[in-house]
Amino acid sequence: MTTEPMDPTAAFRELGRINLGETDLEGVLATVADLAQRTVPGAHEVSVTLIRDRGPHTVASTGTAADHIDKWQYERGSGPCLDACRERSTLLVDDVGAERRWPGWEAVAGAVGINSALSVGLPIRERVAGALNIYATSISNFDDDAIVLAETFASYAAVALANAHLYDTTVTLANHMQAAMESRAVIEQAKGIIMGQRHCSPDEAFAILSRASQESNRKLREVAADLVGRAQRG
């Protein structure tokens, strides 16, 4: 696949402009793969591997060759992208045809026209491991400058991933807080109704709600919402 080359500085700037409010984690990683393909000299196809609790999978790629090579590795639990993930290291294959570290991998990669490969582990913390995988059609495609560029790019990509994870966590927390506030509001409304009807204290009203919740085996919020609904209809 032929793509228009991109200046590294422009690529890094583009990564920094990703609006997490307008995309999801897969969208972030698709941008990472696309920019890496356009930035690293000689890159034919690029993929991003993540290893989570359910195992390794390709979350973004720029073509079928990368998908094919990655899938073979996942099925056998062996290959450069997996080692780069687990070790958080950089693995270079200068000549696919001469590679013997992962028996069978060289034939799979060669069959789809890949003759050199570079996998860079993403410096991600917690329970996630990742790698940026760059595939080229020429032998010895990645010189020292290309490797440094790929590693620098991976560092930027890891920051984008961390920000995406933080954004998702923050949104989830905000949703939980909103739900908690709504529950509290309806419970307070129900308490007010009980206090007005029975001329009791706030603590006594809450005790009445709690007993109704236990006796009906329903959540306190549901009992409160029913009471408020009946009062509004009546």
Task: Describe this protein's structure.
The protein is α+β, with helices and mostly antiparallel strands and 234 residues long. Helix content is 58%, strand content 15%. The chain folds into two domains: 8-171, GAF domain (Beta-Lactamase, 2-Layer Sandwich); 178-233, Arc Repressor Mutant, subunit A, CATH 1.10.10. The chain contains eight helices and five strands. A hairpin with a 2-residue loop joins strand 1 (45-52) and strand 2 (55-61). It starts with 7 loop residues before the first helix and ends with a helix.
Condensed summary:
With 234 residues, the protein is α+β, with helices and mostly antiparallel strands. It has helices at 8-16, 25-39, 64-76, 80-87, 105-111, 144-198, 202-216, 220-233, and strands at residues 45-52, 55-61, 90-93, 116-122, 129-136. A hairpin with a 6-residue loop joins strand 4 (116-122) and strand 5 (129-136).
How is the topology of this model organized?
Layout: H1 8-16, H2 25-39, E1 45-52, E2 55-61, H3 64-76, H4 80-87, E3 90-93, H5 105-111, E4 116-122, E5 129-136, H6 144-198, H7 202-216, H8 220-233
Antiparallel strand pairs: 1-2, 1-5, 3-4, 4-5
Helix pairs in contact: 1-2, 1-6, 2-6, 6-7, 6-8, 7-8
List keywords for this structure.
Arc Repressor Mutant, subunit A; alpha+beta
Give the CA-CA distance, first to last residue: 68 Å
* CATH domain class of the largest domain: Alpha Beta
Share in helix? 55-70%
**What is the structural class?**
alpha+beta
**CATH architectural label of the largest domain:** 2-Layer Sandwich
Number of strand segments? 5
Low-confidence stretches: none
Sequence of secondary-structure elements: HHEEHHEHEEHHH
- Using only C-alpha atoms, the radius of gyration works out to 27 Å
What is the averaged pLDDT score? 85
